[in-house]
Structure formats: structure tokens, C-alpha cells
Amino acid sequence: MQTKSKLRFDPNSPQIKAYLDDVHHNTFTNQGTMVAFPTCLPGMTIQIPRDESHITALTAMPDGTVYGGTSGRRSHLFIASLHRLNGIVLDLGTPAGATRTAAVCCSDSKFVAFVNGARGGRAISGPLLDLAPEDLIQEWGFELPELTDHGECVPGEAVVHAVMDTARKTIVGLTTRHIFTMDAASSTVRVVADAPGSGRIAVASRGGIFGRDEGATLWRYDTASQKVERRAVKLPQGFGDQPLLWATDRHSGVLYTADAQGTLYSFDESQGFSGPLGRALLAPVGPMAVTFDGRVFGFCGDEMAKMFCYDPAARTVANLGVAVSVIERRRYGYVFGDAVTGRDGEIIFGEDDDGGHVWMYFPRIRGAVS
């Protein structure tokens, strides 16, 4: 009797190794859990239109409330309350003529969004909201706040990014050519220095605010003296001319960023840049945020971005796959515009795509150390 020959599987063959590498690199979320929230309260409010829903700016309040803004045919500002029984993303309105939201900041009493359009970059503010005194367990009505347009920050110049200082009194912003400040209470704008308008800015461990400067350097804004020091810090080799993105460790104040090849670095205002920490699977590195135990989660690559995790305890970078949410409705996430850390250590990503959702990522809890 003729016997069937067995198919031999050689895991070391080049063809099999290439196949396994491809499968590994293209898996979907393989650690933790993703949940994608539409930009509405399903069944009660209207979702932001598909071509107006690219989420490009987020900021998180200590109570877990998130404020954000979109880009596209028109810009929308929104509030997201995702804890308790709320689970709502509420559209707060469309600033006239705005097509891109560059940043959103919050003081103790109001939010300020910086939007761009045919005119120069403008500041739009509104009061902070308490969507419900308890939880949305029935069909509550929503009264939308009145938005105030404070006009152009610097005439004729788009706003690139803006952040709130540690005292939550002053916003520091960057246009295409200048650094400016805005008093959070009076909304008074003051231009403080010339600077190239490239990438995002960030608050560092000692309260200084840093942004990309000429000649592979960073400028620094000192909040106490209200002075700008140009070319204050030299970037490590490999950064090229690409705009910078940052992630902040709330506990230590350490910042994380990446060079043009996807190599991660940390920056401490007292000690400067670290050496290379590891490399993400793809470049460029996109939005990142840091959870409470110090792990950094972010996306890397264009068009079909993959999630990664940098673990400072192990000094390793892991590929976590393409974002997918299978809770209630299946949705895949390929492009993301911003990231913040939520109330309980979850990471919140804004999807920069048609029909963009607010994504919550719950990292895997660390195992016990024996």
C-alpha cells in the first residue's frame, strides 16, 4: 500500500521565515484592548460627517473628560466623556471658515482651540462642560456652549501647535513663523520671538517649553522669565528635518520623541537627551502617550500605521499590530492624529481618517514579578 508523504515544514527556510515575519508584522492588536467610539451618542446625537471627522487635536482633563478638534472640509470641536455610563462624544460646533484644528488646551474654566483656514490661525474658546451631574442613563438634552472667536493669533500665519503651561495660566503657541503666548483668563496674545514653525511643542520636566529650532536644535521658552532661548538644546544625530512629536510622562516629566528612522529618545530638561532607546518597526513615528507605569504607546508608519510599546523597565520596543476594535462594531484604525493619557491610565487616540473615531486603548496589566 502506498503511503502519503509528509509535508516537511522547515522554520529556518528563507521562504517560511519571510512569511512568518510578514504575518507577525501585520497582525492586529495583539496586546491589550481597543475600543472605538463614534463621534456621537449613538441613537441620540448626530455623528460628525465623514469628511469633517479627521481628529487632529486632543487634550485630557484630570477628571477624564477629553476635548478635541477635527480637520477636513470643516473643523468641529468636541467633548468626549467616556467613563461611568456616559460614553458620549458630543459635537460642540464648527468655527466659521476653519478646516484644521492644530491644538486644544484647557485652563481651569475654559477650553481654547486653535484652528486654521483661509485666514490666519485663530483661537476659539468655550466654557468647560459637565455633561451630566451623574450618568447618562436616560435621554438627557444637551445645551451647547457659545463659542467665542478671539481672532487671529498672529495675522496671516497658521497656528502649528500650542500647549498649556504647568500653572494652567498661560498658553504657549507656535505659528509658521513666531512663538506667542495667550493669557488663559483674558485671551490676550503676545508675540514673544521669531521661530520656525515646525512640529509640535511640549512642556518638559522643569516647566520649560521646547520646540524644533534651526540647525537640528530646540528652542526653549522659560515660563518664569517669559524669555525664549533659541538653539538651546542640540538634537541627537539622525533627526533630519522632520517635525517632532512628543509624549510626556506625567510622573517624571520626561519627554519621548523619535528621529527620522523611528529611533526613540527620551529628554529630561535637567539631563538632556538619552542615547537611543530602541527603534519602532516603521517610520515615521506618529502620536504617542505614556501610561502611569511609564510605558510608551504610539503608532508608527504611514497609511497603515502599526502600534508599538516602549517599555523603559525592559528597554524593549514591541510591535502590537494594526489597531482594531471588535466591541459592539468592528472597526480598523490606520491613521491617527493625536494621543493623550486618560484618567485611569488608558491611552486615547484620535483617528485622523474619514469617519474618525475616538479610540481608547487599555494596556495589558503587567504580570507579577517573582
Please state the overall shape, judged from the principal axes of the Cα atoms. globular
Radius of gyration, CA atoms, in whole angstroms: 22 Å
Task: Please count the beta strands (DSSP E, at least 2 residues each).
Answer: 31
Which structural class should the secondary elements be placed in?
mainly beta
Query: What's the story with the biggest beta sheet?
Result: 5 strands, antiparallel
Q: How many helices in DSSP terms?
A: 1
* Average predicted confidence as pLDDT: 91
Low-confidence stretches: 1-7
Q: Tell me the helix content.
A: under 10%
Beta-strand percent range = 35-45%
Topology overview:
Elements: H1 14-25, E1 33-37, E2 54-60, E3 66-71, E4 77-81, E5 88-93, E6 98-106, E7 110-117, E8 122-127, E9 148-152, E10 159-164, E11 170-175, E12 178-183, E13 189-194, E14 202-203, E15 209-213, E16 217-222, E17 227-234, E18 247-248, E19 255-258, E20 263-268, E21 272-273, E22 278-279, E23 285-290, E24 296-300, E25 306-311, E26 316-321, E27 323-325, E28 331-333, E29 336-341, E30 347-351, E31 358-362
Antiparallel strand pairs: 1-31, 2-3, 3-4, 4-5, 6-7, 7-8, 8-9, 10-11, 11-12, 12-13, 14-15, 15-16, 16-17, 18-19, 19-20, 20-21, 20-22, 23-24, 24-25, 25-26, 27-28, 29-30, 30-31
